[in-house]
Structure to design on (171 residues):
């Protein structure tokens, strides 16, 4: 029991679109359980939240993926997918949803360290807020999809690249 008490409490917040678009482009599949294991090593994992757009009609392949994630202990935070008048599918409000959860849980002292899987510059204020609240922040993203300003705000030592662990997490 003392071993758990010595470990920092950590929550992982994953903007699934950040991973999805990159692995689609690379034409690979990843093992989310292995990803969780790598990210939470030497920490007391409180939760791994995955924020994703979910369509009204979920195809069987997507339903199976969601069931797999839930069975592995991931917490799905769904947002509806909106179809624009031009037919483009877009998830709305995911970044705001992530921001709200990260800040509220930090203010409630639910964790010591947040891991954010995203490279979006929309999260600059999250990084600033966590510094103000004396919480650790670690950013994970693909090299090609991370904002330079996010790297600078988080600090180079707190930014890591999924590209560097692909061999360990891909199927």
């Amino acid at each position: 029991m003392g071993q758990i008490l010595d470990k920092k409490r950590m929550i992982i917040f994953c903007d699934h679109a950040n991973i999805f678009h990159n692995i689609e482009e690379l034409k690979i599949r990843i093992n989310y359980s292995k990803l969780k294991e790598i990210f939470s090593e030497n920490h007391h994992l409180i939760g791994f939240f995955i924020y994703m757009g979910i369509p009204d009609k979920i195809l069987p392949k997507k339903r199976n993926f969601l069931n797999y994630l839930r069975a592995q202990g991931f917490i799905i935070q769904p947002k509806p997918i909106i179809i624009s008048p031009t037919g483009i599918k877009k998830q709305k409000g995911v970044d705001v949803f992530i921001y709200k959860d990260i800040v509220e849980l930090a203010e409630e002292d639910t964790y010591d360290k947040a891991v954010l899987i995203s490279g979006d510059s929309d999260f600059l204020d999250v990084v600033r807020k966590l510094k103000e609240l004396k919480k650790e922040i670690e950013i994970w993203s693909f090299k090609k999809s991370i904002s330079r300003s996010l790297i600078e705000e988080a600090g180079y030592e707190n930014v890591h690249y999924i590209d560097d662990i692909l061999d360990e997490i891909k199927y």
